[in-house]
Amino acid sequence: MGSKTATVVVVRLGRSAQAPQPDTAVDAVLVQQRRRGLVIVTLAGLAVSVLSLVYFYGRGMSNLYLDGIAHVNIARKVVDSPEHTFWRQYLQIGSPWLPVHTVLMLPLVSNDFLWRTGLAGSLISMAAFVLTAIVMYLLAWDLYVTPGKGAHLLPLITAGVFMFNPAIVYMQATPMTESLFMAVLASAVFMLYRWSRNQSRARLAAAAIVLLVATLTRYEAWPVAILSVALVLLYTHGTAAGKIKNAVLFSALVAIGPLYWLWHNWAIFGNPLEFLTGPYSARGLFSQNRATLGWSTIFVGHPLLDFVLMLIAVAVCVGPLTILLSAAGLARLTAQRRSRILRDGMVALLAVPFLFHVVSLYRGEIQVFPISAFGLLNVRYGLPALLPVALLVPAVISIGRASALRLQAMLVLAIIVLQYGWLLSSGPSGLDVYQEAYRNGVNSKTARELSHSSAYLTQNPVQPMVLMHTGALGPLVSHSSMEFSNVIHEGTVRWHSLSQRIPEDISTVIIQEHDLLDARIHSDPALERDLGERFREVYREGRIHIYKRTSLEAEATK
Fold it and tell me: Which pLDDT score is estimated for 29?
């Protein structure tokens, strides 16, 4: 009996000791392949990012978006406020743009060169670009890679589709928010996907914190947050009580972002929905520019038309062939992995911004026009769709023999190269995301007025202090030798106490017809008379007027 027992024990021990060895060897290979791919993606992302900035900045192409200039100027106002209390500096964040991008730029905009060139924002976009490439590689790895059969190539295809897309390569060289938003969105979805496969409260809390940051980066993250709460409830293993606990924990953390922003708008403007209904909101800007944006009403209330319009915007940014590849990948993934559709459902959150934009068009909240022959407006809204498109492209490749997989991968890459080459057929300056910036930020009437006025102020530096509304005229400050600390603007206490008489220390008044300062002066007869009697118009460019105090002019002529 004893010998038989001993034999059994030996056999069992042998099996338990030997069974994991093949798996361990396979795992080691996968870890090595993953690490090697991660190094390749990181180095390639850094190279693409730096080289593209050198190209676009060297040709004066990186800081043309008026919104991008405004983003950097808002951050500069915080560190260069004429009033140095924390609250007065905090107020400069304003509304409707969310604060994460502004906060990240604060250490950089103190440098005059980085502020005036817009590089303070470009550096944030570049870092976000590299992070997104890494996260998309890791997400694709988790989605596609299984032991053997060369599947480790598929995540590299996802990263390549993202990294070499001409539209994102340009946008990551600008101080716009798209690159940063894509980074935090991809990171949040990746962390939620990881949590869904290996659940713990710590992982869930970490994913919630990243999504919280996303909700304070762009509004497209708000519907992502709402849907993710439902998915957390659905994906949580265990009892109903456990599901509810996880959903409450997750939603409580994510809700901090939107709740904070509602408080921010209430504390500053007395209206928690200022970002939605205020003069600088999408609604407010539409009402102020109804004459030029009236065409957009034809898209309101037409869901199919709105879907097609956004699909065109995506095609302009990503390329129609790339979209077709991703659609084929989705169809194949759905057909062959029906049992995994629910398990992998978290990645569907990457497509939510596209649907959010369709709904926003339907409601008339935003305006998008992506047809270059007639005009370009907010064509960059199609760019976040690059994330789900890049993730799905490798799904068209069937995993089997290594030689067949490589052949398919080469065919897919050839199609992508052909598509991206077509997007670049007119050169980088022919990209629609660049053309939108150029047409609106350089070649438009408003942009030319700003450029000529900035040149005048550079050649004829003004003495402190300057009275102006910096909402639309902010580029005059960053593109001349002026400083926000020497400007009385809408974010200062003295602006709100302006009445009857322009303060004696104001040397220059800059007005754009129909801006808030112009309206304020014309609504106060005493102010209007004071401007007429003690100031003289020294420069005019279109709707921009520059007035100088006459006593200073007299001293200058002595």
Answer: 82
Q: What is the pTM of this model?
A: 0.92
Please tell me the predicted confidence (pLDDT) of residue 149.
64
Asked if 389 and 161 touch (Cβ cutoff 8 Å), the reply is yes
Structure token pair of residue 419: 């598509």
Q: What is the helix (H) or strand (E) element at residue 539, kind and residue range? A: strand 535-541
Please say if the pLDDT value at position 196 is more than 80: yes
Asked whether 380 and 218 are in contact (CB, 8 A), the reply is no
- If we measure between CA atoms, which residue out of 435, 470, 333 comes closest to residue 388? 333
Across the chain, what does the average pLDDT equal? 90
Q: Across the strands, what pairs with 370? A: 376
32 touches 406 (CB < 8 A): no
pLDDT for residue 339: 66
pLDDT of residue 15: 38
> What is the rounded CA–CA span in Å between residue 287 and residue 269?
19
% of the chain residues with pLDDT over 90: 76
- What is the distance between the alpha carbons of residues 209 and 199, in angstroms, rounded to a whole number? 16
For residues 371-380, b (16+ Cβ closer than 10 Å) or e, as one string? ebeeebbbbb
What lies within 8 Å, CB to CB, of 522 at 6+ separation is 528
Q: How far apart are CA 132 and CA 49, in angstroms?
A: 12
**Residue 393: per-residue pLDDT:** 97
CA torsion 105-136-204-147 (nearest 10°) is -150
Are 348 and 391 contacting, i.e. CB atoms less than 8 angstroms apart? no
Query: What stretches of 289-401 show up as alpha helix (H) in DSSP?
Result: 290-293, 303-318, 320-336, 352-363, 386-392
Task: Give the separation between CA 535 and CA 532, rounded to whole angstroms.
Answer: 6
DSSP assignment string, 125-137: HHHHHHHHHHHHH
The token duo for 503 is: 């303060």
Spatial separation of the C-alpha atoms in residues 364 and 412, rounded to whole Å: 38
Domain boundaries, the chain: 33-438, 445-557
Rounded distance between C-alpha atoms, residue 519 and residue 513, angstroms: 8
Helix (H, G, I), strand (E, B) or coil at 502: coil
Residues 213/100, Cβ–Cβ less than 8 Å: yes
For residue 200, give Cα distances in angstroms to 68, 203, 206, 210, 243.
Answer: 39, 5, 10, 16, 12
3 state SS of 63: coil
What counts of helices (H) and strands (E) characterise the chain? Answer: 28, 7
C-alpha triplet 395, 214, 189: angle, nearest 5°: 25
- Which of 134-143, 264-273, 285-294 has the lowest average pLDDT? 285-294
Q: Which two tokens stand for residue 43?
A: 């180095």
Whether pLDDT at 19 is above 60? no
Cα 203 to chain centroid distance, Å, stands at 25
Residue 103 CA, chain-centre distance (Å), reads: 14
**Chain-centroid distance, C-alpha 188:** 14
